[in-house]
Every structure is written in C-alpha cells, then in structure tokens.
User: Fold these one by one.
Assistant:
Number 1:
Amino acid sequence: MMRVALVHYWLVGMRGGERVLETFCDIFPQADIFTLVVDRSKLSEKLLRHDIKTSFLQKLGGRKHYQKMLPLMPFALESLDLTGYDLVISSEAGPAKGIITRPDAVHICYCHSPMRYIWDLYPQYMAEAGFLARSMLALTAPALRQWDVTTAHRVDHFITNSDYVAKRVKKFYRRESTVIHPPVNISRFQISPGPKDYYLCAGQITPYKRIELAVEACTRLSLPLVVIGDGATEKLKRLAGPTVRFLGSVSDVEMENYFAGCRALLYPGVEDFGIVPLEVMASGRPVIAFARGGALETVVDKVTGMFFHEQTVEALVAALEEFEKSCAQFRPFEIRAHAMKFDSGRFEKELRQYLAHVPELSLSAEVSGHEDRQVPTTKKEQHPV
C-alpha cells in the first residue's frame, strides 16, 4: 500500500484551501496530514479523522501568532519528517511546498498561489504594514524569495487553481502546471425570489481586495452596500457614507441569505481564483468584477455579470450606473447553471483523472474509482506537466 502525506500550510479555519484538502482526504482516506500549526476547534470532522502532525511552531504559540512567524516557516517545514511516504501532496498558498521528501518519492503541489506578500503584492503589503512588520519583511523577503524559487525545484508536478496562478508559477518559478479549478459546494446555495435591495462585498478584508473602491463608489452614488468580513479598518469605515453597512463576520446561513438577496456582488480586487463570486452566482446573482485575475475564468461578461477595466472608483461608478440600467437582463437560473460547472464533484473527478496519469505513479485502480465512473481525459490531463 502506497503511503501518502498531505501537507497544508496551516490549519486554523475552513476556507477554500481547506476544502481542497478535504477532497484529497476523500481520495486518500488513510493519508496523514502535516501542517505548520493547527487549531483543531476550527476544523471539519473530515479533516479531524486524519492523523494531523504539526511543526515546532505549534509549541511556540503558532496557533495564534503564525502570521508573525514567516521567517521561521522554512525551518519548520524542512524539519517535518516525510521519509516514510511514497507520495506527498502539498497544498500551497504559503511555503508548504518547501518540505523535503525521499529522492524516490513523488511530490505533487496544488498551488493556490505563490506567496503574494513576497512577490507581486509585496509593495501593497509594505504600504499597509506597520513599522515593525515592514522592517521585518524588508529584511527577510529577499532570502524568502530565493528559498521559494529553490523549493519549487523540489516539486515533481504542479497543479494550479487557475490560469492566472499558472502564469504566476511560470513567471516566478519557471515551471509548467496543469489547471484544475477548486471545488465550490453549489448545493449550499439557492435562488431566492425576495427583493434585491443592496450590493454586496464579502470575504476577509485585506488590502489587495480593494474593498475601498466599492465603498467609495456606492457612497458616491448613494447606493446601499453591505460589507461582510473581518478586517475593516477605521480608515475604510471613514470612507463610507450612510448607505454602507459593515457587518463583520456572519454565520454560514446568514451568508447564504445575503448572497441570495443582493443585487450583485462587487468584486474590485485581483484574486487568484475566487470562490465567493461562484457562490454568489450559485445563488443566481450577478458579479461586477475588475477584469483581471481569476474573475476572468469564472464571470461571463453580460451573462453572469459584467466587468470594469480600470481599478478605480470612477470605473466602478460607471459600471454600477450601467448595471442599474440593465440589471433586468441577467437571468438567475442561467447564472446558477454556469456556476454548477465548478461544483465539487467535477473537482474530485478531474483530480482522480490527473493522479491516475502521473507517469511515476501506478494509481489508476486506487484513485480512479470504478470503471463506470471513467470519462475520457483531455489532452491537458494526459500531460500533467
């Protein structure tokens, strides 16, 4: 029996990356999980059924302060003992791919994103960080970039979650990859016949999401905007007029209701892929997105939403004015049908197909399932790298 290890950067909540990890757990139910730090109270039962091994950062208080321990992460990852495993799958949006495997082991990396804060978003993080964080990042970023590129050569095969991330992997690591879009649990979301009387922004509020553009645009037009998610700063709140509400975090049920009840999701940032737009589309609602990044792979212009082409308040204001005139053209059931193409069942099927055709592995019987579930592989899937 092939021994499998799943490596995830950190396990402190259940977001998109952790849902991807759950699918790997479905495919390899006996796999062990390795991570830098874990907060078991925040994990799903599916993940908790696996043996979860942590790095020395767990004992240093990493569960609460892991984001401050970036300079220690390379040492922590390289200290994990993976010598007993034949197949290692790393789930990467931090430095997870930096683990060391046996020479004869196969290492596959599912890359959600190269580390944004040391690559293309480095200037934004530096501009928003406090003095101490900015000083630490300035000192450590050059060495981290060098380590990040070096560890890319420890990976045998890359999978990326979008064409946008595939281009970044090619740019920063000079490596090819296969795109398999992450799973979206479409069944959680339903179309609601109720009134659509507000615009919506949802998700963790961080600088690169550019939530301030939505706040300023809706304030300028006196349009109602609901902002869901932790991280709203006083500076952001000061930009908001009386039509903007900040709700912080809400329950899953409340979130689903807000998705179904909005006029449209405003998506002014550049995301690697973006689960939230598809969840809103699964609720039959359109997305108004900046035309860059993962949104170009999920939003169909004038069908499931619309794009604006400059990341400015003025461009978003113009898009909102156009949407207000044409919102009746968007058909909820057509929008939901498009979102269903990204459902979680599709993700697992594509992963199984991919793994069954990795040249170094003999996993066809183990990961492909029964013969009646097989579908023809595409050209891309026949060539994992």
Number 2:
Amino acid sequence: MNDEQEAPPPVDPAQMRAIARRLILPHVFLVAAMLAAAVLYVKNMGGGKEAPTGAGECAASAALATKLAPLAKGDIAALAIRAQPRPMQNFSFLQDGAPTEVASFKGRTILLNLWATWCVPCREEMPALDRLQGEAGNDRFSVVAVNIDTARLERPKAFLQETGVKNLTFYADSSGKAFQGLQQSGKLVGLPTTFLIGPDGCEIGALAGPAKWDGADALALIKAAAQQ
C-alpha cells in the first residue's frame, strides 16, 4: 500500500478569477441597486439634508404639511404627507370642455384625483369625492377629479350622471398625456391616485388607491387645509 498522497492539480488563476466574479459580482450589483433605491427614496420623500428644489416657493405648503401630518389617519392613513413639499408637476386638461391646467388652481388647496371608468375602485370612489366637494368645497378648496378615458368619451359623463354625482366639475384629459407624464415622473403607478396640493401649487401629500373621502377623517384634514 502506498502512503504517499497524490499532489492536488495546479490552480488555474484565470479559472479562480472567473469563479470569484460569478460569486461576488451579483452581490455587488444587488448592494449598488439597494443603495440607489435608498437614495432615490430619501430624495423623493424629502428626507435628505439638502434643501429640495422649490423649498422656498413651497414654504406655505411645508407649514401646512406639518399641521396636517397628524390628521392623516383612520380612513386616510394611506395619505403620505411630504416632509418637504415640492412644486406639483403641471399638466393641461379640459374643464367642461375648456382648456385649463393644474397651475391655474394656485391660490386654493385642491384634491387632484385621476380616475377612469374602466377602473373599478375609481368608480366606487367618485360618489365619496362628490360628497366631499359638496361638504367642503368653497373658494379655498376644490376637488379636481380628472377623467383620463381615451376611448368611448361619452362614458365618463354618463357614469357621473347615473351615479348621481352633482357637485363635481367635469375635468378630462382624453389625450392620456397627464397619465403618461405622471407615470414617467414616478408620481403615479396606478389608478386611482390622489394628490393634495397647497395654495402655492406644491404637493403636500399623495394617496395611491381609493379612500373614504367623505368620512370624518378626510373632512377633518380637508377643513384644516382649507383654513389656510
């Protein structure tokens, strides 16, 4: 019996480097992606140390956000209030057939809602938004519910009539540009999506999905916002 052990085969440096790359690089890319996502999240939510663009012009909304943050609870707990509001992205649409834009509502607080007739949660939410407008709408606050149907354009108005909506002005963007623009900017993923915008035109908060906008929680927050 031979007690001598066979010598291990020589190590190929190129092969070892290839193995190391296969083991290490995916983790490097994962860590880099996680860091990039974290930086983007902090930037979007205003948690960074640097003052965001528009910090000065959004001073009024920043003060209002501090006041409203404790009121985003209960039925509207999903309303994410910005620590540092920023100017709302401007886009055009029609108001009862006449051209208008988000910027034209400066001077009042608005609840900007995007909806479509093919969106079931949107349809369920519209009567609540209508009741909110009827209860809290005045020269300091308005619900601006923009329909984004791009086909069968007779359906939105017919739906509102069938459901008894009577307080909301009819806003529409049949071109789909508003939806696309908000998607590209990362502000909108699906429907319905609602933005709370201060009288200085800055985004105070956003809520993805439907909410009970005619409930006590929503009314308390909206009335506090409209007092500014």
